[in-house]
UniProtKB/TrEMBL annotation, chain A:
InterPro entries the record matches: Ribosomal_Su5_D2-typ_SF, Ribosomal_uS9, Ribsml_uS5_D2-typ_fold_subgr
Stretches the record annotates as Disordered: 358-385
PANTHER family: RIBOSOMAL PROTEIN S9, SMALL RIBOSOMAL SUBUNIT PROTEIN US9M
One Pfam family, short name: Ribosomal_S9
Similarity comment: family membership: Belongs to the universal ribosomal protein uS9 family.
Keyword field: Mitochondrion, Ribonucleoprotein, Ribosomal protein, Transit peptide
Name under which the protein is recorded: Small ribosomal subunit protein uS9m
GO molecular function (one): RNA binding
From TrEMBL, chain B:
Keywords (A to Z) from UniProt: Mitochondrion, Ribonucleoprotein, Ribosomal protein, Transit peptide
One record GO biological process: apoptotic process
Name of the molecule in the record: Small ribosomal subunit protein mS29
GO molecular function: structural constituent of ribosome
Any GO CC annotation of this UniProt entry: mitochondrial small ribosomal subunit
UniProt main location, coarse: mitochondrion
Organism, as annotated: Hucho hucho (huchen)
Intracellular or extracellular location(s): Mitochondrion
InterPro entries: Ribosomal_mS29, Ribosomal_mS29_met
Family statement drawn from the similarity comment of this UniProt entry: Belongs to the mitochondrion-specific ribosomal protein mS29 family.
Domain of life: Eukaryota
Length: 385, 364
């Protein structure tokens, strides 16, 4: 995938407050600095060899200057938009830029952006050796100095904890049930994230050894002393089901509870009105579901959410569906039924439905046909001559 | 194929009352067995094909006693046969059991000693005909020798004992050399129609006419039941074409023409029981099941007035009984289908439609 380019607008706002936005005035600012300027934003999952980037392209002073320019540009932007420069957040910046530079492009990474230089310029390593050619770090000649120094630090901390434990044992104050670090709801750093942190590449084996060492540290009873250190290398997991919006139940004039839901699958859209009276009759676009879906598989799709929660004969359904073919209409209705059922269910049941995959919209759509091929994947018949 | 007789054990979905005349509301939802001796004579051609396969598999023919059939039978019991014939029309959604109700009524009629004229599917006469001969009797009409001779053969099987009793009242001339005299038994006419395939359609016409004349007669009178399945085929369009590729209208077919005369209520001493059928019908949308839609204007006017008998899907009790019957016959092999939850799933998937349920259970 080609490296996506994000244009930093901040650098275009000159200190004198000139409001002329000329995107091509980049080089005039920076001719003193590096000539070949590549604005490459590498996200975490970009497999860029950070260590092999060679000598740094952006020096420290350059980065500092960019930061200053960004801050000033931020204040100018706030003034332009009529807002208070002191409380102008990154979200406000994004909105203002989207307003001032509306873009018809589809790719989000191709649109104009203004972000803090730390997010824009990849993290680089400063020159590792001094004027005499002697490296600063004692582990430089290992090749992976940050990784090995991290391992050494971790092991030192583990030894310190063990020493603390021995001292306590000597005093007779050792107890097994000391306060433990809570690891619930968080995960270890991924290999790519660790690489980004250390600004150097590590192999799978190295990563495994690192995790092993951290686990060993955590196995000691008194490791809570190093909690801050450990938490630096863990990330919080988001709770998925809290993202579900459950609408409250509505009641019609006879006091019967009902709820609606809609779903989409591959150009078919369906809406469902679920009523709690109880006879299990389903009408789709005015006709009975046995006549609308003569195929057993489609009816099984409709049955799945109800059967899963065990409420087969409880609801009456009025559905309307359009677009797509019979399978996608059945899938759209299935999603609509699951969403409509949410208001009748408890939290735990919502979670089980989500884990069963009933609430996930199916993202598969028809793949685009490519030029030079007969279909999306099928190539033209290969003729030897 | 031997149909074994076993001692009938008491069960909630079976009834010992095998005579349709004695069945009443208390037997609703229960299965009664058609005696094996009756099976081949009464139903040589009338049953739905899937049901025939089921009979062969289960080694017995069990029919469920349902409301529409009981209603029909009670009407037949109380009707006055000196008045013009009453026409009954069974209608309902696809697969709700119209043909089976018709067969139940036909069984009743034959046990009561009526003469049964059972046309298994009128749609067979208006489509897929390989040979169309111009009729010898009437210039503009067309004959269908194969269908006519098939039907005559089955008619002979059904009504053996009547064939010798009924005597012809008119002389029929078939060709220069062949003719059937007055006073000959009907059986001879039918045999001639079966053997001489070319004139079998005219024979059918003659048979129908004779029966119509003699049905309400006081001396040696018998009751005539005309049972037509898929009657809406008589008034629609056909898929048959003449040699110059112009379509054939139903009136131009001898068989259809004669059958229409039977369905008119200008004779007395019997009943006409008909079912609508979308399954074999031509040029009808699959969602149509009401009489007006399927019969069309012309058909509706001809059938009017009639007694409509709606056939609905299985009720809870009927579904229960069908389920127990399949369980008893070990038809439901899957262990989950024998549980309560499996039953609920089956109710949902089939919506209690008999034919859908049957197809669903076929692979369980």
């Amino acid at each position: 995938m080609a490296a996506s380019s994000g244009r930093t607008v901040g650098s275009f706002l000159w200190k004198c407050g000139n409001f002329c936005f000329n995107f091509n005035t980049v080089s005039s600012n920076l001719t003193r600095q590096v000539l070949s300027r590549q604005l490459c934003v590498s996200a975490v999952f970009h497999r860029k060899n950070l260590a092999a980037a060679g000598p740094e392209k952006f020096s420290e002073e350059f980065i500092k200057k960019q930061v200053e320019e960004f801050n000033i540009g931020k204040r100018h932007l706030a003034n332009m938009m009529g807002e208070d420069p002191e409380t102008f957040t990154q979200g406000d910046i994004d909105r203002s830029i989207a307003y001032l530079f509306p873009s018809g492009l589809f790719d989000n990474k191709a649109k104009p952006l203004m972000k803090h230089p730390d997010e824009v310029f990849p993290k680089q390593r400063a020159v590792q050796w001094g004027a005499d050619g002697r490296p600063f770090h004692f582990l430089f000649y290992t090749g992976k100095q940050s990784y090995y120094s991290l391992m050494h630090d971790t092991f030192t901390k583990a030894l310190a904890v063990e020493k603390h434990q021995d001292r306590l044992r000597g005093k007779g104050l050792f107890t097994q049930d000391a306060k433990q670090i809570s690891l619930v709801g968080s995960r270890w750093l991924l290999k790519e994230e660790l690489e980004e942190l250390l600004v150097e590449t590590i192999s799978d084996h190295d990563y495994a050894r690192f995790i092993q060492l951290m686990e060993r540290l955590l196995s000691l009873p008194y490791c809570s002393a190093e909690e801050d250190f450990v938490q630096r290398y863990r990330r919080q997991l988001e709770i998925q089901s809290s993202k579900q919006q459950v609408q409250p139940l509505q009641y019609d004039q006879h006091g019967v509870a009902y709820s609606t839901g809609d779903g989409r699958r591959k150009t078919a859209t369906g809406t469902v009105l679920l009523r709690d009276s109880g006879s299990g009759s389903i009408s789709i676009n005015g006709t009975n579901y046995v006549h609308y879906f003569p195929v057993l598989q489609d009816r099984e799709q409709l049955m799945f959410p109800l059967h899963f929660m065990g409420v087969l004969g409880r609801f009456d359904m009025q559905c309307s569906v359009s677009g797509g073919g019979h399978s996608s209409q059945a899938g759209a209705l299935r999603l609509a039924i699951s969403r409509a059922m949410l208001s009748f269910l408890s939290e735990g049941q919502v979670e089980t439905m989500r884990q069963a995959g009933l609430l996930t919209p199916d993202p598969r759509i028809k793949e685009r046909k490519k030029p030079g091929q007969e279909g999306a994947r099928r190539k033209f018949t290969w003729k030897k001559r | 194929m031997e149909l074994e007789t076993r001692p009938e054990t008491f069960s909630i979905f079976r009834t010992q009352e095998n005579d349709p005349a004695c069945q009443s509301e208390q037997h609703l939802g229960q299965y009664y067995t058609v005696p094996p001796s009756h099976f081949h004579t009464v139903f040589p051609h009338g049953l739905p094909p899937r049901y025939q396969q089921q009979v062969k598999t289960f080694n017995e023919g069990c029919v469920m006693v349902r409301q529409p059939a009981l209603e029909l039978i009670s009407h037949l019991k109380r009707a006055d046969y000196s008045k013009p014939t009453l026409r009954y029309l069974l209608y309902g959604v696809k697969g709700s059991g119209k043909t089976m109700s018709l067969c139940h009524t036909v069984h009743y009629c034959s046990t009561q000693g009526w003469l049964v004229l059972h046309i298994p599917d009128a749609h067979l006469w208006v489509k897929n005909c390989k040979e169309l001969l111009p009729s010898s009797y009437h210039a503009s009409r067309f004959d269908q020798p194969i269908q006519a001779s098939n039907w005559l053969r089955n008619f002979r099987t059904t009504n053996e004992h009547f064939l010798s009793k009924i005597k012809l009242r008119q002389r029929y001339v078939w060709t220069k050399r062949e003719s059937t005299e007055e006073g000959r038994p009907l059986g001879e006419l039918v045999d001639m129609g079966v053997s001489r395939v070319k004139s079998s359609s005219d024979v059918v016409g003659a048979v129908l006419k004779e029966l119509r004349l003699q049905a309400g007669g006081t001396e040696g009178g018998f009751r005539l039941a005309v049972a037509v399945d898929g009657v809406n085929g008589l008034w629609g369009r056909t898929t048959l074409k003449k040699e110059d590729k112009s379509p054939v209208a139903p009136e131009e077919l001898t068989l259809v023409h004669n059958l229409r005369k039977m369905i008119n209520n200008d004779w007395c001493g019997g009943a006409v029981i008909a079912t609508l059928s979308q399954t074999g019908s031509l040029y009808a949308p699959s969602s149509a099941y009401l009489p007006q839609e399927l019969l069309g204007e012309e058909g509706f006017d001809s059938m009017d007035p009639f007694v409509p008998v709606p056939v609905s899907l299985y009720s809870e009790k009927e579904f229960e009984s069908c389920y127990l019957y399949y369980l008893d016959r070990h038809w439901l092999q899957h262990s989950h289908s024998q549980t309560e939850e499996g039953k609920k799933e089956m109710i949902f998937l089939s919506n209690r439609n008999p034919s859908v349920l049957e197809r669903l259970c076929a692979f369980l």
